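Quick illustration, no need to memorize.
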Amino acid sequence: MIIWMTLSILIGIALFSYIPDCIRGRSLVELKKITVIIPARNEERNIGRLLESLQEQIYPHIEVLVMDDHSTDRTVDIAKSFDVKVISLPSLPDGWLGKSWGCWNGAKAATGELLLFLDADTVLERDGVQHLMAIYYERKTTILSVHPYHEMIRPYEYLSSFFHMLVCSSLSAFHFLQEYKEPSGAFGQCMLCKKRDYFKFGGHAVQRGALLENMAIGQYVLQAGGSVACISGKGAVSMRMYPDGMQSFVEGWSKNFAKGASITNRWMLLFIALWINGIITSCVHLLQPSAAVLFFYLLFVVQIYWVLQRIGNFGIGSALLYPVHVFIFLSVFFLFFVKTFLRRNVSWKGRAIQMKKE
């Protein structure tokens, strides 16, 4: 037990060695026009907060495009109340998924030299665009991929902790060799790139049917000779995921994690499994506590807290209660395992999505 959990701790250190964020001050090299593209389908609860944060940006030269995907709520009315351009998408063609279709059409309509793709549930700090642009030029990358800082309010939202950590580790985004080995994809909520690079590498059209489109696009760009840099959005862009209740929480995370696990590098998946297995082992042994068990419990608390406070406002409570979070994570994964891997279909935002075999 001691050897196994020691190995798990060391693997956790390797997986989350360095998580860069957007907090430290930066100066811009160039002030170029940027087009913010927001794919939106039934986002009346989110779109206003994002557009308000965009209005307050200190960065000049921002064009905002809201790509409405046949919303049946007040999304369009709310968007039109802001000084932005709202574009109604044509009917979804065969082979396309809604978000990719919105991003693709937004990129074609954009007039900026750079493109910032944002999910409707994200919110920017007042200097968020400026920080993202500065980091993009600093990293000299094809794609800047940002995992927004997760702001949570309701108790069930805090149960996202292990899902977030698995997303970060499955992309090989923050491991100890990141200076020498690029990530295996890109995060899905926030992506920044030059318009010419977007079309050079085929944009969302090359992965039009991918359920996790940005992860697939990141993989394609890397295979085609481009580069991807991953950072935490802390200090620049945040998000609130699945505020509508536990059902959307379960549907959303099962969609994201189950599909992500199926396209993660197999070696990385092995290390993640070993890390998780050690954590599960520590949870099981807590039923019969000893000095050694409590020692490793505290080590896992420290490690998990170190990661979580860089990617969301989880707090020490989430780390101390990590056995509960692990149980929820495993329950959601196994509950939807049959639906996503065997039946190969999921539902999201009122659409049935058929998953193709990889």
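Residues 34-243 form a domain with the Spore Coat Polysaccharide Biosynthesis Protein SpsA; Chain A fold (CATH 3.90.550.10).
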